[in-house]
Write a structure and sequence with these properties.
19 helices, 57% helix
């Protein structure tokens, strides 16, 4: 890289002075000079730790020409620095850098926007995909300028295409997209749909189980789009840079293998569960819930059971000590009201589905009762 020396009479100052100079051409020269230096360094050189806390300020440069050089330098920095599990020196600064890139660079010149997008995506290669996406969702999806909202959605879509849902988890993305389906800007709504389509390309029909609550018209529009997308063949274009070749090959062999469009299978495909946030059940069961189950009135029991079943709609439940709950539900098998009996059986069924293997330790509580019921 040949640094572009400003066409002014005075000589360019030393790089450190150029980086903070009032003349944007000198700042541009400073960013380019710094980029040329780090390109010659090894990935663990001290120069990376020296400048990492300055990146968010550099990419926020108020001059478009200088900013273009700053964002390009930032992209080189992120892709060049040593990638380690946990993010290394970038971990502490990822959010501030991505916030600045979203707010100041995604609405800039096409070249600057492209480098800013690539830089955000490359945080996925540094084990910082969750942090990067949180910044894009919180800062970009809620931005007051539509073109930045659209650019933010496009970054997320491109990130998923590049690294897949193991690096950029779809659940928080879908939650962030929900209000955008009602955005007054048609281009924003279209971009949001395209992003959901990319998630569907990876997860197939299972994505429906993690979609936020949407209006019927929105679901109809999504269903029509899903019919045009072939799922099951998506594979990452990139892998986190800290992964060794053996881990990459193992992940490659585990990716794909899906169908060509069949919508069968369980309510929530096993391939989707890894990307879901587990729902805390026990923390939501307060005193009123338990007193309702103990009430002699069947309607009170039904009210508590309906409350529980609403929680258990979540396809993935947080592990915990469900012993008391399982025993209480089992005791309701002997209730005099068939509705209560039926709801308690439904609740245990949903609990088993949501906990999967974690439910096995509670099976011994149910086994004697189930055997007696089978004999009858």
């Amino acid at each position: 890289i040949m640094a572009d020396i400003p066409e002014v009479e005075e000589k360019p100052p030393p790089m450190e002075e150029a980086l903070v100079h009032s003349n944007w051409k000198f700042r541009k020269f400073g960013y380019e000079e710094l980029e040329s230096r780090i390109l010659k360094k090894k990935e663990d050189d001290p120069i990376f730790a020296e400048y990492v806390d300055k990146l968010s300020g550099y990419v926020s440069d108020s001059n478009a020409g200088a900013q273009d050089a700053a964002v390009k330098f930032c992209l080189t920095f992120v892709t060049k620095t040593k990638a380690v599990k946990g993010g290394g020196i970038l971990a502490e600064h990822c959010s501030s850098i991505c916030n600045a890139l979203v707010d100041k660079a995604l609405g800039s010149r096409p070249g600057t926007k492209k480098n800013a997008s690539d830089c955000i995506i490359e945080f996925g290669g540094c084990d910082l995909g969750a942090q990067a996406m949180n910044s894009v969702i919180s800062k970009g999806f809620n931005h007051k300028i539509p073109k930045i909202v659209i650019a933010s959605i496009e970054v997320v879509t491109e990130a998923l295409a590049a690294y897949g849902p193991k690096v950029f988890a779809p659940s928080p993305i879908l939650k962030g997209l929900k209000p955008l389906f009602d955005n007054k800007d048609a281009k924003v709504r279209k971009s949001a749909l395209n992003c959901v389509g990319e998630i569907y390309r990876w997860l197939g029909p299972g994505v429906k189980s993690i979609l936020p609550d949407l209006r019927d018209a929105q679901l109809t529009e999504l269903e029509a789009m899903f019919q045009e997308i072939k799922f099951g063949s998506a594979k990452p274009e990139k892998y986190p840079r800290f992964m060794d070749s053996q881990s990459i090959e193992s992940q490659k062999s585990a990716t794909g293998g899906g169908g060509s469009g069949a919508a069968g299978g369980s309510a929530t495909d096993d391939s989707v569960l890894d990307f879901l946030d587990p729902v805390d059940v026990l923390g939501q069961l307060k005193k009123d819930f338990w007193s309702g189950l103990d009430n002699e009135q069947w309607k009170s029991k039904k009210e508590s059971l309906d409350f529980l079943l609403n929680i258990l709609k979540a396809p993935k439940l947080a592990a915990g000590d469900y012993g008391d709950l399982v025993r209480k539900l089992r005791s309701l098998f002997n209730d005099s009201n068939v509705i209560v009996i039926g709801l308690s059986i439904q609740a245990l069924t949903k609990l088993g589905e949501g906990l999967r293997g974690d439910f096995s330790r509670h099976a011994h509580i149910l086994l004697p009762t189930l055997i007696d019921m089978w004999k009858e």
